[in-house]
Amino acid sequence: MVQTQLEAAREGTITEAMARVADRENRDPEFVREQVADGQAVIPANTHHEALDPMIIGREFATKVNANIGNSETTSNLEEELEKLHTAVHYGADTVMDLGTGSDLDDIRETHIEHSPVPIGTVPLYEAVKQAGSPEDITTDLLLEIIEKQAEQGVDYMTIHAGILAEHLPLTDGRKTGIVSRGGSIMATWMEAHGEQNPLFQVYDELCRIFAAHDVTFSLGDSLRPGSLADACDEAQHAELDTLGELTRRAWAHDVQVMVEGPGHVPMDKVAETVERQQEVCDGAPFYVLGPLVTDIAPGYDHITSAIGAAMAAQAGAAMLCYVTPKEHLGLPDEDDVRDGLVAYRIAAHAGDVGSGRPGARDWDDALSEARYAFDWREQFRLALDPDRAREYHDQTLPEDNYKDARFCSMCGVEFCSMRIDQDARDRADGEMDRLESTTNLEASPAAAVNLPPVGTHDTGDRPSLEDDGREQVTETTGDD
Ligand code: SF4
């Protein structure tokens, strides 16, 4: 009989996963256990996911970042999908959601789980639509069958759109952008076609039993999240959130871990209140937000519009940020978009951790600032969130090796380099610059691993690769540090 992390924590047991998480977060194992026992944090760790290096999601821990990958009808193959997983982990994804809707879904999912050191999440509803042929033709039995299969395959967390109810649908009528969640639009279509209540809500206790049997974590989908600033924090969103609070408590009664998904598009003045309301309604269950975008005017740059909201949400208590790429609203992201999206979100997560005063979070900033003021370019590159990009930009104008010791760069030039001018003046005054030295020791920092360079929580030098099992080997696509 499987014991979930939540059940073990409630019994007072510190599991191997909790001990590992405590080590990675630089926290006391007993504190980790208490947070899991109280539902304030989750360790998504399906018992069948053998390659997993356990991690924790909770507002008391370093803010985490999720990256979405997956194929579509027009792309892709097993090798490409594994490359996407590698790229996501390389650039610092703490979890990866496989949102594939194309072919070979089982094979791709099993390969991801086999090779992924980070938790894998899915949205089983997508596979149900693919098998049924249309949202209206989904059956409750099909939903249960797919969810159980994915649980047996080792999926660590699943987005379940059980919170959108038939009585919520009229509340969306006056919206500017209707229902923008894929899962939400599918469930709304089904309920309207059948004139019945959401089947995922109807069989929720059965879902809890399946999740408990494999220790799958719920990620309760926000089907009615706003798709525009105009729809943010409306009655429909809040009505669904109330149901998500109820579903959170029902899952906990089954010893099943829960996190709750959130918006979406939210103006800056409502980001903190959105987080606070979820924390109150859902009794502190970890909040996993998509962005939110704080303005709707910048298609092509929504990794920026959303990273602003994500940083604010992280500071306010959101536990995990789902990245958004520059292609949001426009097309399927490619590898460069994944990189840009993840870097934007690692910045947001880190800025949130600094802003909320997480232990040691600012040590990385201090170490880089010291290297910058000392004109230690190589150390600056090494500490940079994206070392390749930092080095590449410096090389564009000053590629020669001697410029890596120069007391200026091409931005202000040798004559107007303010740091050099400042240092020379101080030196002339009292010889202060002779005493210039780094004082920040990252080795001794109390920060979580995710808050220290190199970016992310995993060394992808040992990146996932296809075994010699007749499948094609993945080729290198990104330069490891
Ligand atoms: S030249 Fe300007 S940007 Fe470059 S190091 Fe000096 S102060 Fe900084």
Automatic annotation (TrEMBL):
Catalysed reaction, written as an equation: 5-amino-1-(5-phospho-beta-D-ribosyl)imidazole + S-adenosyl-L-methionine = 4-amino-2-methyl-5-(phosphooxymethyl)pyrimidine + CO + 5'-deoxyadenosine + formate + L-methionine + 3 H(+)
Cofactor: [4Fe-4S] cluster
UniProt keyword list: 4Fe-4S, Iron, Iron-sulfur, Lyase, Metal-binding, S-adenosyl-L-methionine, Thiamine biosynthesis, Zinc
GO terms of biological process kind: thiamine biosynthetic process; thiamine diphosphate biosynthetic process
Compositionally biased spans, kind Basic and acidic residues: 428-437, 459-474
MF-aspect GO terms: 4 iron, 4 sulfur cluster binding; phosphomethylpyrimidine synthase activity; zinc ion binding
Residues annotated as binding substrate: N68, M97, Y126, H161, S181, R182, G183, D222, S223, L224, R225, E261, Y288
EC number from the UniProt entry: 4.1.99.17
Cofactor binding comment, as recorded: Binds 1 [4Fe-4S] cluster per subunit. The cluster is coordinated with 3 cysteines and an exchangeable S-adenosyl-L-methionine.
Region Disordered, annotated ranges: 428-481
Pathway info: Cofactor biosynthesis; thiamine diphosphate biosynthesis
Binding site for Zn(2+): H265, H329
Pfam families: ThiC_Rad_SAM
Record-linked InterPro entries: ThiC (IPR037509), ThiC/Bza_core_dom (IPR038521), ThiC/BzaA/B (IPR002817)
The UniProt record lists the keyword Zinc: yes
Residues that, per the record, bind [4Fe-4S] cluster: C409, C412, C417
Enzyme class: lyase
Family that this chain belongs to: Belongs to the ThiC family.
Physiological role: Catalyzes the synthesis of the hydroxymethylpyrimidine phosphate (HMP-P) moiety of thiamine from aminoimidazole ribotide (AIR) in a radical S-adenosyl-L-methionine (SAM)-dependent reaction.
Name of this protein: Phosphomethylpyrimidine synthase
Species per Swiss-Prot/TrEMBL record: Natronorubrum bangense JCM 10635
